[in-house]
Batch of 3 targets.
Target 1
Amino acid sequence: MDVVVQVSPATDILSWVLVVAHRVGNEGVAIFFMNLWAIWLSGNMLVFEGIRRGAREIVDMAGRLLTDYTTALQDFKPTIDSMQIKWHPPPLGSFKANVDGALFLESRSAGIGVIVRDSAGRVIATTAKHIVGDFPANVVEALGVHFAVQFVRDLGLQSIMVGGDNLEVINAINSKEIDLTALGLILDDVQDTTIEHYGTITFGHTRRERNKVAHGLARNAQNVEGSMVFGSCDGLLCIVFDMNTAVLWNPSTREYKRLPVPCSSGRKSSLFGYGFGYDSSIDDYKVVRICPSARQGVPMGAELYTLKTNSWKKIEGITFDVLFMDRLDRGSFANGAMYWWVIAFTFSKDEYDSSSKILRFDLKAEKFKLLPPPRHIPKNLLMNLGVIAGFLCTGRDNHGSGIKLWRLKDDGVKQMWSKGVAIGVNRCVLPICYPICYPKMGEVLMHIIRKGQDNIVLCLCNLDDTTLKTQLIHVPEFWSDATTYVESLVSPNQCWEEKVHLEL
């Protein structure tokens, strides 16, 4: 087959080759260039060796060389000596905890993974944790080390080597320098926990290739679904088992009701806020579900479940977005409304602002409202809320001298914060302290994290002399919660069953 290609003076060699390839295919181009090379080789043989080849010989030589080349390519199977990556075990009788973190930018959250092995390489325990917030990578790694230290301590292990692949974090832990950044404060708490550990804990750098299992656990953390009680009302508990599965349960009667799937179940976010309360105006229980948008300039989504209708409906008219403290944030029920402490993102055509707010949802009016936090609270600080004696309350560190309490007076029209007492509980880790209930007059049960001690504790505080009366319970798990409920015979199925009978 003869191929004629007309080439203009401005056509470069690459353009010409592309034209030829289009006409005759890649095989034709290979034959053409092999013939060119054979002509060049024959010219050199004539000049330097005096050997003359005819046109037929040059073409035959090019064909043989091309055949040899293509055959060699088919038979060639390169072998690459991969670098052997070995996990280095700890000394006999010791244990090694590998830890890693992963960022999930879309959901503004992160994952932590930990795997613990003994000196023979046997897996002792693994865990993964999903945390919420826009954290830098080194802060996530530091939180991971903090979580790993608490995890191995709770396992009762004594001689521990903690390995992570972030060299900056490992060097900072082993450094004696004072660091007042967020990273430094986290690692300072790690060092305090290490000092108080009854065994020995050392920290070392692990190459990323040797940390793949911990990294895999961290990546999978956003798929780990636990359970959380996010509301208590009249003896009914509202429990979330994953982001879209919730039940109402009466522990006294052991009766429960599974809620239908919410309307926004397909929304791509791992941040959800829930609230559970009673609407006395219609004698019905309601569940509020809030889904932040995770996109700047887009309002949050929200929907409402009512027990009598056994269905969800969307709540309209929202003009702001929020960021919760926890992945599944529980609202506090008081004064006929639900409350959450949030970072609220308000936006208009001209501005976009964020600040700490109290998100209020009126169960009767079914409307949201943003309230200011107590005075002198930093602009973007997230704190916890609690309810005692029917009042919404919150607490925070009082400059190292204890916990200062506030309570909200809310008559449905006007809301106002009033400062309460200061309780002498020192070394509290902010902002995770809040009142749970009044067991009796003059006392308050507090949920507190205490720095450098046993982490989460439930404390009974005396309001008369503002002192810590009794430290009741030590909770080993860092991410824990507490709630109260009263024994009752309220049925989670009663309202729905009565409605069905009437319709029949």
Note: The chain has three domains: 13-71, 95-221, 225-500.
Target 2
Amino acid sequence: MSQRSARCVLITYNEEGQRIETCTVDRHSVSALKESALVMPWSLESRSFALDDEFARQLGGTALLLLAIDQPELEQYITVTQQRPEEPAAE
């Protein structure tokens, strides 16, 4: 059995079907796209390599908010907390 190449996950909003869609694609096929994209690195080391519920909440919330930048009709549906209550406000 041959090993699959490394994959990336894409998250899109389908306006016509009014649904969020996820798919996996070959990592090499998105390399050129990343050169002109907003890339937000999420350091695993700074999170003690914990891919836990809080990490998933932050990553998922960020993905939804990023989709809404260019598809503002999504904003009315997004109710995720953008800042945890115990976190001090950024100055």
Note: The chain has a mean pLDDT of 90.
Target 3
Amino acid sequence: MKITITFILITLLMSCTENKAQKTEVSNAEFSLSDCGGTYKGKPLPFGKPIEEWEKLFGKPTRKQYDVVFIWDNLGVIIWNVGTTKDDEYSPDYEIRKYDQLYIFFSNLDSPSGKKGKLKFVDEFDFFEAQRKYQEKHKIQGTQNLELFDINENGEFQNIELIKQFLIYPALSYKKSISIDGSAINPGISLKELNKKRKSKDLEILSFRDNNLDGNNQWGDTKEEDGEYWNNEKRDMCPSQSTFIRNIAQFSNHELEFIKVEYYDKND
């Protein structure tokens, strides 16, 4: 009996300590997200508005890919407009900017998975197109210097600094905790730990997984399988608003790669 009571007391103490730590992480989080919107340092995320509004939050982008992807290297975030292509000119109009998506990167090309090419956008990387651009830029013919794009004997990129020029990953990953629905997500967190924190706050776990984007749930047992996870059991679709956002966690090679924030207009 004595042992049982001691065990219960220790368990309660550990639970209280964990809850206190999570409250601190949430209160200190610069990004605070929910189904109905989000803030950065207390200011609303300006989805649907011109890039200049994002610059008021993050400063000027350090680089961009065409007028499609805007990258803040020092912060570890990007804005990617999925409604435009490299051939489109920049437009500040709502009908274009409503397709802006925010990515908060917890892993980049300097992370263990990044060096081995195990991240989502590395898998989708067109090496032949990158080689063509490199040859064109440096006026190279034939196969000269193309070994720079190779993988070495350790399974890592031969020249990671070169590869960085062609991918959207920020130079630095995001180093702080963020809050989604009042539950903390911190760098290096596993899917199991992420959902444990959500359960402790009586939140739906992130379990809907649609890796081939066919609209069907490929949920298994949430054991850090690669793919995108989100809460598809919406208790509240923000009835007082005409818009909502979806917060998605991407795990790659058992590593939290990024949080993607998608914006939706209910009138579409």
Note: The chain has two domains: 31-111+169-265, 126-164.
